[in-house]
Amino acid sequence: MLKLWFAPNTCARVTLTALEEIGEPFETGLVAFMAGEHRKPAYLAINPAGKVPALETPEGVLVQTGAMLTWLAETYPQASLLPDAATAFERAAIRAEIFRCSSDLHPLVTRFVMAPMISADPQHAGAIREKARETLLMQLAPLDARLSRQEWQGGDRWSVLDAYLAWIWFRITGSGFDADAFPAIAAHHDRAMDRPSAQAALAREQAATEELQQRGLDFRPPFDKGAKA
Ligand SMILES: N[C@@H](CCC(=O)N[C@@H](CS)C(=O)NCC(=O)O)C(=O)O
């Protein structure tokens, strides 16, 4: 059986949503950041990078959200996790959207949300956050334009690309990014979170959050505004 290592509110939500969308039974393992579990040998044996998510599969452990999503999409084609693609170019264009989320947007999310953790000098946090905000404005503009013309990232059908963008939007608006700047992305986020697989992922996160709270290990990022998921 598949096992996803995760923590609530993190990018692991995207893979969690993909697994819920597939609908096959899977296990989860909760990583308590506040207890430093992601830096302890037991978890480093699963992902030596000390990050979530990590997916245990019958063939071995997969790390990197984009790798997990493409593996799940190929392994469970009936779930149609990614947009249809008939040619090598179309498949590459879909990977470009995954890389956009994992390589361009996610690092900006980290800088915007976790600015005090990026530099050893706390005085740099404001500048880091502002630069990330400016770059996010530039990078999200074409996505807002696209989503004002079409319902989903891939066209007229939901895919995990939508779950990925919805997580990015949740994270930055939860940290004070102006949601009014991109009304089409804001509306897309709400559509994406209405999906039963997204709601099921949130329910698992909620249970994990309650477990962490009971252990006194609930994690809130520095600029958390408590945005709705
Ligand atoms: N490129 C990785 C990024 C994973 C990542 O940065 N995960 C964050 C949570 S969103 C994490 O585990 N951070 C803890 C740390 O870096 O100490 C992916 O796409 O899966």
Structure, described:
It is a single chain. The chain is of the alpha+beta class. It folds into 2 domains: about 1-80 and about 195-215, Glutaredoxin (3-Layer(aba) Sandwich), CATH 3.40.30; about 90-195, Glutathione S-transferase Yfyf (Class Pi), Chain A, domain 2, CATH 1.20.1050. It is about 55% helix and about 10% strand. The chain contains 8 helices and 4 strands, in the order E-H-E-H-E-E-H-H-H-H-H-H. The chain has helices spanning about 10-20, 40-45, 65-75, 90-115, 125-150, 160-175, 185-195, 195-215, and strands spanning about 1-5, 25-30, 55, 60-65. Strands 2-1-3-4 form a 4-stranded mixed beta sheet, covered by helices on one side. Helix 1 packs parallel to helix 3, helix 4 packs antiparallel against helix 5 (about 125-150) and helix 4 runs parallel beside helix 6 (about 160-175). The protein is globular and about 45 Å long. The protein starts with a strand and ends in a 15-residue tail after the last helix. The model has no long low-confidence stretch (mean pLDDT about 95). The site of glutathione has 10 residues, from loops.
Largest sheet at a glance? 4 strands, mixed
Could you say which overall geometry the principal axes of the C-alpha atoms support?
A: globular
Supply the number of structural domains. Answer: 2
Bound compounds: glutathione
| Residues in helix, % | 40-55%
CATH architecture classification of the largest domain: Up-down Bundle
- For the largest beta sheet, what order do the strands appear in spatially? 2-1-3-4
Q: Compute the gyration radius: what is it? A: 17 Å
Number of strands: 4
What is the highest CATH level, the class of the largest domain? Mainly Alpha
CATH topology of the largest domain, which one?
A: Glutathione S-transferase Yfyf (Class Pi), Chain A, domain 2
**What is the number of helical segments per DSSP (H or I, 4+ residues)?**
8
| Mean pLDDT over all positions | 96
> What's the order of the H and E elements?
EHEHEEHHHHHH
Amount of beta strand: 5-15%
> What distance lies between the first and last C-alpha atoms, to the nearest angstrom?
28 Å
Classify the secondary structure makeup into a structural class: alpha+beta
Low-pLDDT runs: none
